[in-house]
C-alpha cells in the first residue's frame, strides 16, 4: 500500500523541474525571436540570467570591434553570433577583442544560434547569443 501522500490524486512528476528563471529561446521566425515567450525584433544579446536589449549594431555591416569589446565583461566563455537569415563571417579583426580575452566565438545564422544557445545553456555553459536581424 502506498503512503497517503501518494493517493492525493495529483500526478507524480518523474522529471526535474525546468529552471524557468533562465532565458531560453521559445520560438523564432522571419525577423524575430522569442525569449521566454517575449517577442524580440531588434539586435539583442541573450544570456541565461539577463538580456542586453538594443545591442548597438543594427545590421551585420555595422559590426565594429567595440561591439565585441562590450561583450567581454558579460562573464561568458562562448559567444554565438547570429548573423540574420544567413551565415556571414565577420572580419577577423572585429572579433579580436573576444579572442584575446579567451572567449570563443561561433558564427551561424540566427536560427542556428538560437538552437545552439538552448543546448549550451541547458548544459550550464556560460554562453551568450549576440543576435542581428539584418
How would you describe the oligomerization state of the chains in this entry?
A: single chain
Low-confidence stretches: 1-6, 11-19
Distance between the ends: 62 Å
Number of helices: 3
What pattern of helices and strands is seen along the backbone? EEEEEHEHEHE
Number of strands: 8
Rounded to an integer in angstroms, the radius of gyration calculated over CA atoms is 18 Å
Structural class: alpha/beta
Arithmetic mean pLDDT: 88
Major sheet description: 5 strands, mixed
Percentage of residues assigned to helices: 10-25%
Structure description:
By secondary structure, this protein is α/β, with parallel strands linked by helices. The chain is built from three helices and eight strands. It has helices at residues 65-69, 92-100, 110-122; strands spanning 25-29, 32-35, 38-40, 44-47, 50-53, 78-83, 104-108, 127-132. It has a five-stranded mixed β-sheet with strand order 5-4-8-6-7, sandwiched between helices. Strands 1-2-3 form a three-stranded antiparallel β-sheet, with helices on one face. The model is unreliable at 1-6 and 11-19 (pLDDT under 50).
Amino acid at each position: 500500500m502506498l503512503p497517503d501522500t501518494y493517493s492525493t490524486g495529483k500526478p507524480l512528476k518523474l522529471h526535474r523541474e525546468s529552471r524557468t528563471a533562465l532565458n531560453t529561446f521559445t520560438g523564432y521566425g522571419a525577423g524575430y525571436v522569442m525569449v521566454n515567450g517575449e517577442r524580440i525584433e531588434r539586435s539583442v544579446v541573450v544570456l541565461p540570467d539577463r538580456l542586453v536589449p538594443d545591442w548597438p549594431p543594427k545590421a551585420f555591416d555595422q559590426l565594429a570591434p567595440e561591439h565585441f569589446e562590450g561583450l567581454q565583461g558579460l562573464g561568458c566563455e562562448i559567444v554565438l553570433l547570429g548573423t540574420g537569415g544567413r551565415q556571414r563571417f565577420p572580419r577577423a579583426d572585429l572579433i579580436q577583442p573576444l579572442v584575446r580575452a579567451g572567449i570563443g566565438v561561433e558564427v551561424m545564422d540566427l536560427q542556428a544560434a538560437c538552437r545552439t544557445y538552448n543546448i549550451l545553456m541547458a548544459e550550464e555553459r556560460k554562453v551568450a547569443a549576440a543576435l542581428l536581424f539584418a
